[in-house]
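Margin note: ligand = guanosine-5'-monophosphate.
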Amino acid sequence: MEFPKSKLIVISAPSGSGKTSIFKKAKAVLPNLVFSISYTTRQPRAGEINGVDYFFTDEHQFRKMIDGDQLLEWAEVYGNFYGTSKEFIERSQREGKIVVLDIDVQGAMQLKQLPDLDAIFVFFMPPSLEELSKRLVLRGTEDDASLRKRIDNAEHEMSFKDEYDYQIVNDQLEDAVDAFLKVIIYECHGLKSDEKNDMDDIVNSLKKAQIR
Ligand code: 5GP
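Resulting structure:
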């Protein structure tokens, strides 16, 4: 099996942990971040675009990808299949991008079993389950049954948080974005040991550069 050439950032975040907002803001500061576009058999939600949010496919094609060893990992989540394309990662890394995988805990635990994979694991958490359920209701994308399933699953996923290298609580969005940026800079930009204490300065100057 071939492994991606440079460090991957693997993220798990229960639905409603605010990851979409965190990703958007982080990418505005570090434009060479790219979020891996997974394959899924789930139906597109309103506004989702094929090839942007996911590559939407059917179970037959998905199984062909598994058999052809085209997926770095895959899992069944909420009754649908989701998988990470090796080809997408390889292409992005050839372009010098830092690739972020947003996958569920089953997928992340599969990747942790691959000893030669250079990856760090980050878990995003809502401040509490009450807050998470409030955010999901506000988002308004799920019916009652799906909402219940996502809240139960979030509780289950949170029990894996200590398996991850970093845990980031999304209480205040800006703080969570800063914490995420620091992890990426620290892990992917090969800081010298005397620079590691200056993380706040580095993040602040990157943000200023983005505003200009
Ligand atoms: P959603 O349907 O809300 O977009 O995603 C549902 C769950 O599937 C999320 O926890 C998301 O992280 C996970 N997911 C998305 N893509 C992948 C993937 O390629 N592999 C795995 N294992 N999980 C994924």
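The chain has a mean pLDDT of 88.
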